[in-house]
Design brief:
Radius of gyration: 17 Å
Helix content: 10-25%
CATH superfamily: Endonuclease/exonuclease/phosphatase
Number of domains: 1
Mean pLDDT: 85
Shape: globular
CATH architecture: 4-Layer Sandwich
CATH topology: Deoxyribonuclease I, Chain A
């Protein structure tokens, strides 16, 4: 199974998504993409602005289903059921400012609100977190990047990149983001946290190079490949939401569209942004 997360830096979804074809993801999370136009059962898109949202798509034989969100969860931390050879809960993330719990603080709040699901199902949290341990001092105690990593560890999750490359948070050698598109301003702010029980089966964790992706985005895709026998001998149930905290089959709390949409192709668009965007 291949998991990919990539902030495509805006632009039409189909063109941007096509750049991931060479990575052959089974499940992909794409931040900042425009809303696609055609419906399919293997792509979900969420957002207020049709030009900029977050998409999750799957390839055969996987299927995905948007799950109800808890009221008060900051944008964007989207729970999605993944059904296929491996069943799991995905929390697709694009952390943003301009809200009461901005950036990593919003991710911490989302994990707290969804922790019952984390404890009950194999969970992957993937996306643009806009955070790193180097900025811990910018956040209150318990709301920093290191606090998030600790919380996820207690829930049985580990960063696939840091586990595979044996690097500490804040000491990453491979950046996932280049501030204002500049090679001299690298940061690592995109992550894929996976169940610790999957970690020994991780075969590959790659970050796209500056040169290969410099015309497509200021971010680089993060690819995680997990051996097909990661859950060998284990039957993972489909995600069934508990009545507390999530009401069964409820509509999204903030009425964001959870449209099932397909891949189409259009041209990319560039922008400049800082590590906190």
């Amino acid at each position: 199974m291949r998991l990919v997360t990539w902030n495509c830096c805006r632009g039409p979804y189909l063109k941007k998504a096509s750049f991931l074809d060479a990575l052959a993801p089974d499940i992909a999370v794409i931040q900042e993409c425009a809303r696609p136009t055609c419906e399919t059962g293997q792509c979900l898109w969420f957002g207020h602005n049709p030009r900029q949202g977050i998409a999750v798509f799957a390839k055969e034989p996987y299927r995905i289903r948007a799950l109800p969100r808890v009221p008060g969860v900051p944008r964007y931390a989207i729970p999605v059921e993944i059904a296929g050879p491996t069943n799991f809960l995905l929390i697709a993330v694009w952390s943003k400012g301009g809200q009461s719990s901005p950036y990593v603080e919003g991710v911490v709040r989302a994990v707290k609100l969804y922790r019952k699901l984390f404890a009950r199902y194999p969970t992957v949290l993937a996306g643009d977190l806009n955070s790193n341990a180097i900025w811990d001092s910018n956040h209150s105690t318990g709301l920093s990047h290191s606090a998030l990593v600790k919380m996820l560890s207690e829930l049985g999750l580990v960063s696939s990149y840091h586990f595979f490359h044996r690097e500490a948070h804040g000491e990453e050698k491979q950046p996932t983001y280049y501030f204002q598109w500049k090679e001299q301003r690298p940061f690592h702010i995109d992550y894929c946290f996976i169940p610790q029980t999957w970690a020994p089966n991780v075969k590959r964790v790659d970050v796209g190079s500056y040169a290969d992706w410099k015309s497509h985005s200021d971010h680089r895709p993060l690819l995680v490949e997990i051996a097909d026998d990661a859950n060998s001998g284990t039957v993972t149930p489909r995600v069934e939401l508990p009545r507390d905290p999530l009401p069964p089959r409820a509509a999204p709390a903030d009425n964001w569209p959870a449209q099932q949409l397909s891949l189409k192709r259009s041209a990319p668009r560039r922008k400049s942004r800082g590590p906190a965007d």
